[in-house]
Amino acid sequence: MKVIYGWIALLVIVITGVGLFIIQWYTMPVQPKENPLPNMRKNLAQRYEARANMFSDSAMAMAQRLKRTQGSLTPKQEEKVNSLLDRAKNLKEKAAQLQTKDLSENETGELLRACNSIYGEASAICNQLQVESGK
Hints:
Blueprint: H1 2-27, H2 37-70, H3 75-98, H4 105-133
């Protein structure tokens, strides 16, 4: 009798295991066929490039606004405008490097950190110029 109960218990365990395996197999999320990281990296690079263009446009607009209100730029203001233009140029170059396809994860991480750093510096300079220009 104990042998029959043992076989029944074993059969119940096997049927339950197979059922759980089938349920898990059908409810598993579908694995993506492509790696989405290159597309994300490309989109980030395009956004950084757009921000670089925005910074260079802002630098020129603020320089013109300061020239209209003051007559000319002070050496510090001129230095800030030039620094903002340099940061915009650097950000654009890093964004172009980020769009290349043959980058390792380390290189991508370094480029993204550099872009974030340059963006932060340019944003701070832009804010300082906005305060000085009165807007």
